[in-house]
Amino acid sequence: MPRKVFAASVQHETHSFCITPTTLGDFQKTLYLRDAEVERAMRGTRGEWGAVFDLADEFGWTVVHPVASFAQPGGPVTTHAFEHFSEIILDALRKNLPFDGILLPMHGAMVVEDFDDAEGELLARIRKIVGPKVPIAMSLDVHANASVEMATHADIITTYRTTPHIDMYETCERAGRLLERAMKGEIRPKVHRAQGPVMFGIDEGRTVTHWGPMRDMMKKVAAAEAEIPGVLDIGVNAGFGWADTPFTGPTVLVNGDGSDPRYQALADDLIRLAWDQRGIYTIDFLPIAEGIRIAMEPRSGPGPLLIGDYTDNPGGGAHGDGTSFLKALLESKVEDAVVGHIADPESAKIGIDAGIGATVTLNLGGKTDPRFGGTPLKVTGKVLAIADGVYTRKGKYATGTVGTIGPSFLLDLGHVRVIVSSIKSQIDDREQFRMFGIEPEKVNVLLCKASNHFRADFEPMARKLIYIDSGGIVSRNFAQFPYRKVRRPIWPLDKVE
Ligand SMILES: [Zn+2]
Are 338 and 488 in contact (CB under 8 A)? Predict the structure, then answer.
């Protein structure tokens, strides 16, 4: 009898201090696949689902996959949206019982209006239906805040080991292979979790440089997996510090076969390394004026000067409509700059309706929460190009998967061109520029509302990369946010002995 596996994904990274809630509509307009659509869109990609379908072929699984959905990081997910997904998942589960195993490619930092631990809650509900014996495997983003509930209800949890995340496929594949072994009765996996008094650490899991806390952690992980018998997989989660929950912060998840006190000891040992390295970062942010000064320097080589607008990165839950750096660019004499992109559906509609060649006057950006990252900018310029905003990723990040910035246009403001989009999204692939006829390799200064993932596709062709702090909400100045739920004392909010 072929084994029957249930798979579903609902992915969100929640910034508790983003004032716009994440609604069902946000999931529906970004990624919302049901039943057969999941396989049609995901088979053959390098995302997690690509691994699900390849493993199904290899092991002969029958897979029931009612939903795969994703919304851009943002404010807490509405209870309505969460319950919608929960119903789809639990319904499909009940209707198709029994299952031999469960495989869930999740993010792990989803906060719902009415409760803090969306993945833990979903796992508890699934566990209640399938009972204690059916193995449940989950794969997580390295920016997951992994709770005790997740580690209790799941038998297997694997985590991305790269940032930019270029191992989505491999992470889900590891979870799926362990699930196969558990279903066969070869192993009895259990997750051993450790967490320290830290809400932000391991350099956010960055592996793009050859040094840093995550690199050190991965060396220890490789050694432990090789040396300690029964260690099946070790997840190192950097956590997501902008989610205000009692379990926010880095965790280590040791997947061990059976019971052995060495598993928990190993998890405790590894999390101590995260504590020791809590203040070490591989990147720093420059003030806007310094960013402009560098942008004014003559070209020092081929490729653009790449500027990461880190604090207004929608990939971290920011609004992606901050204007402070654009304002500084317009006031400067920086030549041939492109801003990708300002999310402003109102302005996008005006430009698209006006059509290519038309001149439009806009109150651009800064509308969502003008306390952060700059207020609306009055600008007049020409509509250069229009696109539907849908793109297939060609770079190393989530290769082959489809993303969208919604109907959008390219605005000509003279020495600066701005992409005005209707959906907020981080810059993660050069295709986001190519759809407007821009060759990003040839631009002089390329501003990307992005922090990590864009480095996979952009950094190799850039002459230099810098980061600026434009005053957005993905800020390391955590003290400015009214945290209520994180455990205290916690670093860096408190002095921890
Ligand atoms: Zn992540």
Answer: no
In the chain, pLDDT over 70 holds for what percent of residues?
A: 100
102 and 22: one domain? yes
Boundary residue ending a domain (210, 241, 276): 276
385 and 262 inside one domain: no
Overall pTM > 0.90: yes
Q: Is residue 48 part of a domain?
A: yes
- Whether 489 maps to a domain, the answer reads no
CA-based end-to-end distance of the chain: 57
Are 252 and 237 in contact by the 8 Å Cβ rule? The answer is yes
- Mean pLDDT, residues 276-302: 95
Q: Are residues 234 and 367 in the same domain?
A: no
1, pLDDT greater than 80 = no
Domain residues for the domain of 366 are 288-475
- Whether 494 maps to a domain, the answer reads no
Give a yes or no: residue 493 inside a domain: no
The CA 161 to ligand 1 mean position distance, Å, reads 10
Name the one residue in this structure whose structure tokens are 């009765």: 185
**Total count of domains within the chain:** 2
- Verify that 32 and 97 share a domain, yes or no: yes
- Distance from residue 186's CA to the centre of ligand 1 (Å): 32
Same domain, 293 and 401: yes
DSSP 21: P
Asked if 223 and 256 sit in the same domain, the reply is yes
177 Cα–ligand 1 center, Å: 22
pLDDT of residue 2: 87
3-state SS assignment for residue 195: strand
Please give the mean pLDDT across all residues of the chain: 97
**Per-residue model confidence as pLDDT tens digits over 164-194:** 999 999 999 999 999 999 999 999 999 999 9
Q: Please tell me the predicted confidence (pLDDT) of residue 387.
A: 98
CA atoms within 13 A on the CB side of 323: 21
**CA pair distance 285, 289, nearest whole angstrom:** 12
497 or 7, higher pLDDT: 7
- Is the per-residue pLDDT at 497 higher than 90? no
Classify residue 286 by its DSSP letter. B
For range 304-330, the mean pLDDT: 97
Ligand 1 centroid to Cα of residue 481, in Å, is 21
* Cα 349 to averaged position of ligand 1 atoms, centre (Å): 31
CA of 143 to the centre of ligand 1 (A): 5
